[in-house]
Amino acid sequence: MIGYVEGKLLKKEEDRILVLANQVGYEVMVPAVVMDRLQDKTVGDEVALFIYYQQSERQPKPVLIGFNTDLERDFFQSFITAEDIGPLKAVKALTIPVSEIAAAIETKDIHKLKTLKGIGGRTAQKIIATLNGKMAKFVEYHSHEEKDMTPVEDFVYPVLDVLITQLGHKTTDAKKMIKEALQRNKTISTPEELFDEVYRATVTP
User: Fold this and answer.
1) What is the average pLDDT score of the chain?
2) Please, which pLDDT band fits residue 144 given cuts at 50, 70 and 90?
3) 76: phi > 0 → left, psi -120 to 50 → alpha, else beta; which?
4) C-beta separation of 51 from 68 below 8 A
5) Confidence band (pLDDT; 50, 70, 90) for 154?
6) What is the per-residue pLDDT for 133?
7) What DSSP line would sit under the chain, residue for residue?
8) Buried b / exposed e across 25-56, counting CB within 10 Å, b at 16+?
9) Mind giving me the DSSP string for 59-74?
10) Confidence of residue 145 (pLDDT cuts 50, 70, 90)
């Protein structure tokens, strides 16, 4: 089983990368929250990922899923124990740091869980039913990268959801648009104000 890959970046797509390690190219799927940390990486750069290895009778082709840290991978392994959450669905769902998802589970914040890609109200309830009370170590976890990120207020999530699910923006692009809007206007405090600022930038020549 493959648990860790370190090598040169050969290719980067929206949801996966190709890593050359010991003359072997490994295709690794990465959640959006992991891809955010790889935005500055270009072909030829060194990358290192902890790997969740998925293979089963129903999924005979091996799938490698990459994470920045071992603890992120541990969270993923816990997350997929929830009903209706398989590995491939979980990869798409991890669009915000695991500490924030864990906090939403512990506080039974269905609204925040519903902002995760592919997670509806019923699935959010199942996640909480399975994992509530088991997320303490992940809530307390903040990697160096997460500390460097701009704190995300609750009013951001509705706007992020609209940009991704209704307007069709990629998750990484939507997050960048929101971050830049918040940097331009630090007085924003509501979803409406944030969306107006994002939209203003998109229509300005």
Assistant:
1) 86
2) very low
3) alpha
4) no
5) low
6) 94
7) ---EEEEEEEEE-SSEEEEEETTEEEEEE--HHHHGGGTT--TT-EEEEEEEEE--SSS-S-EEEEESSHHHHHHHHHHTTSTT--HHHHHHH--S-HHHHHHHHHTT-HHHHHTSTT--HHHHHHHHHHHTTS-HHHHS---HHHHHSPP--TTHHHHHHIIIIIT---HHHHHHHHHHHHHH-TT--SHHHHHHHHHHHHH--
8) ebebbbbbbbbbbbeeeeeeeebebbbbebee
9) S-S-EEEEESSHHHHH
10) very low
Contact 78, 131 (CB under 8 A): yes
Tens of pLDDT, residue by residue over 38-80, are 888 899 999 999 999 987 667 668 899 999 888 899 999 999 9
Say which residue the tokens 């903040």 belong to: 142
pLDDT at 104: 95
Which positions ≥6 away from 46 have C-beta within 8 Å? Answer: 6, 7, 8, 9
> Tokens representing 47?
């990358």
Q: In this structure, what is the dihedral angle of CA atoms 151, 157, 135, 91, given to the nearest 10 degrees?
A: -110
Rounded-to-integer distance, Cα 32 and Cα 9, Å: 17
Domains defined along the chain, listed by start: 4-139 (2.40.50.140), 156-203 (no CATH)
Tokens matching residue 169: 């923006």
